[in-house]
Design brief:
single chain, about 130 residues, mainly alpha, two-stranded antiparallel ribbon, two-stranded antiparallel sheet, 4 strands, elongated, disordered N terminus, binds iron/sulfur cluster
Amino acid sequence: MPAPVSKSPVFHCRQCGECCQGKGGILPSPVERGLIALYLKIPLSVLIRDYLEETPLGLAVKNKPEGGCIFQVGTRCRIHPVKPRICRDWPFLPAILLHEEEFAAAKTACAGLEPNSSHTDFLTFWQTKVI
Ligand code: SF4
Ligand code: SF4
């Protein structure tokens, strides 16, 4: 009997750093802001002044002048152990889990998502991660 064909994992992060190149949208919660300030060993007021900015949706992480998240160094995250929830959850975000078209868009943006995987594959993979 032939060996089963091994299927690529639906998601395997390539650490390319592309997902940190977006413009805005990273809104750390008050607890996350406190943790980031503690991790960076700076007062909360300095974190807010130097790394965050007011937006209509609340305090968001700034981008570098040349683009990309202010906490990105090369392809790495300077605050990795305390990065905001949305960064830890990507690409398993509610919109991508709920909407096939959002998953299709995410596949074009994230090199870690297997291009041939279906939305059903993605959901099954996510369920094995969270359950
Ligand atoms: S874009 Fe995808 S593969 Fe690249 S670092 Fe982000 S999660 Fe990993
Ligand atoms: S906080 Fe870290 S993981 Fe989140 S966007 Fe910035 S560099 Fe990327």
